Amino acid sequence: MSLLLIEAFYGGSHKQLMDLLHQEIEDSVLYSLPAKKWHWRARTSALYFMQNIPPSESYRVLFTSSVLNLAELVALRPDLGKLRKILYFHENQLVYPVRKSQERDFQYGYNQILSCLVAEIVVFNSAFNMESFLKSIGSFLKMIPDHRPKDLESMIRPKCRVLYFPIRFPDLGLSVPHHRRSPEKTTDCEAAETSSRSTSLPSNTQSGTNESMDPHISEEEQKTGEQTEEPNNQNASASEHVPHEISSASPALDTSRVHQRPLHIVWPHRWEHDKDPETFFSSLLKLKERGLPFNVSVLGETFADVPDVFLKFRTTLGSSVLHWGYLSSKAEYFRVLSMADVAISTAKHEFFGVAMLEAVHCGCYPLCPKSLVYPEIFAAEYLYSTPEQLVKRLQKFCTRPDLVRKHRFQGEIARFSWEALSGRFRSLLAAEPGKDS
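Request: output the structure for the sequence above.
Response:
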């Protein structure tokens, strides 16, 4: 195996990237640790991998995320130190938000600086990530009381480059509402839809009953004009193989019916303080106090310590909640995103934002802070500067949900797809680097 993949925190986007590369890059092998106890992974994973990665003369390239202290590993394993070492930053600890400055553990950022010094190539998932890291090195090292190292930014910068996180967007097919389909895909979708109607629908469709029904609302819900809370798919197997196609034989959407549904808001982020759930829930509470109709799906992965705000607002939001909690089935996760109207980020920390791009791919209108990586990814119309601006935008959408349901995203998310980025990744990870690496 010429490509050695090492992931010290095998979960979330870290797992997503490693699985994709391991699947797509021939002659690769992957070693990982579960995505638990992040702080201990950052402190001690080098020692674990030193003992558990067998020596091999076939290794040529080592690719790892910045959770691993690469300097420790190559010191412990001189054979791995001879490889072409590539370090990938999903985030950086120099500007990672902490609640109080004294809570910042110097060691994590210091480990990342050391890893950059021993790597041949340092890759960041966004320009924001790269520049925030490099420009913070000097001020970060001022925490050292004396005998501080100098000129580390100038030593590391020439190794650095930006290579966006590659997303394998699912083929949603007919599960995307008719009014959200892009013009270039409408013909194919309508052709497939016509075919599915003639072969898949029950005989009573001849009366036209199903022709006027929203495929994303059950027949019973449409009869009553209400949506019921859907069960959270907590029991789906995390190891379940999920195909990259989500299809539906449902008939076309009755847009007049859709416009009667409350705005469906989705928050698809980790349940941790750096995603600022407090601002998100306080915004929803203001909508509720003003008597504005909306439904909400709060998704995202949870860890050992769940902020208390989630338990509090689950009760407060009551019947407005459609989905609550992590959906381990990717197919179900994308189905919920394709049903939603608006995807919200309130993050205090975001260096790329896979969840928001996936939501946009599924037809959601994004609303993101005008900070962090978001101005690099989204046009100005999708950004807000203050929580008050977020509430104002949501208030407008609650009263006119058709505004977002008819909206076509202004941007190009295909540039973040694996198809668009695969060539650069293959060149980067080749044993013999090419001109694009």
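The first strand starts at residue 3 and ends at 10.
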